[in-house]
Design goal:
Elements (H helix, E strand, L loop, with lengths): L2 E3 L14 E3 L3 E7 L2 E2 L4 E2 L4 H17 L8 E8 L5 H9 L9 E6 L9 E8 L3
Parallel strand pairs: 6-7
Antiparallel strand pairs: 1-2, 2-3, 3-8, 4-5, 6-8
Length: about 130
Amino acid sequence: MKAILNTERAPKAIGPYSQGIDTGNLMFLSGQIPICPAKGEIVATDIEGQTRQSLENVKAILESCGCTMDNVVKTTVFLKDIGDFGKMNEVYQGFFNEGNYPARSAVQVAALPKDALVEIEVIALKGE
């Protein structure tokens, strides 16, 4: 089984990809940059605001298929500047319950779409 995840509560894809794919047991969410779905653009200018918006987008996609952030088993965080890691991490930890943090990788990249400061992708286990 493969179902396309799509919600108006997260930004529309800006290319030939889906917001996410539900395989029945696992969900694979495309990387979310900090686009505000209501405005269709990046509003926050700092890493904290952009991290928050990226994770709100992830949360909205997960909720569209009956899941929460507790279902996340792996995240990958792409940072324009690895020097922002600490500030990103402060916001990031608030989206997960203490002791239920997913596995994570964080890397610096040369550039991100729309000149975002952060992009976050997740894999989530359905039904947990």
